[in-house]
Amino acid sequence: MDACELYLKADGILVNSFEALESAAYKRLRARGERVYAIGPMIRCHSSKDGSAECMKWLDRHPCRSVVFVSFGTMVQISSRQVKELAYGLESVGKGFYGCFLPTGTAKSIYPRGS
Fold it and tell me: Name one GO molecular function term (predicted).
């Protein structure tokens, strides 16, 4: 059975996104009768092996709604230079940020200086 046949048999589609980000797309899909549910962003944050305990401690030190989460998912790889430029840009606007990137094929977390 191919993906299209499975799609037609599904009770709904779960999307790793949030509705406020792509509201027009969700409205169009639902207008066509599609059963689409935004359940994201989902990140793995339960294993101490992946550094998530450190991540949670870092987040707990910051007020609610004061941190920007940046993730391009697992399908996008950006260069180390691009990661640095993004980090400098976010830092220059005075916001804390936590990033999950896959530069040059290796998962990497970016913590802002001074946090």
Answer: UDP-glucosyltransferase activity
In this prediction, residue 52 carries a pLDDT of 63
Strands lying side by side in the sheet with 108-110: 67-71, 96-101, 108-110
Please state the pTM of the whole predicted model: 0.44
In one letter, which amino acid is 77?
Q
What is the mean pLDDT of the segment spanning 90-112?
Answer: 62
Length in residues, the chain: 115
Helix (H, G, I), strand (E, B) or coil at 7: helix
- Shared domain for 54 and 91, answered yes or no, is yes
Task: Give yes or no: residues 52 and 15 share one domain.
Answer: no
User: Cα dist. 57→38, 40, 53 in Å?
Assistant: 27, 21, 6
Tell me, what's the pLDDT at 113? Answer: 45
Does one domain contain both 15 and 54? no
Residues 18 and 55 in one domain: no
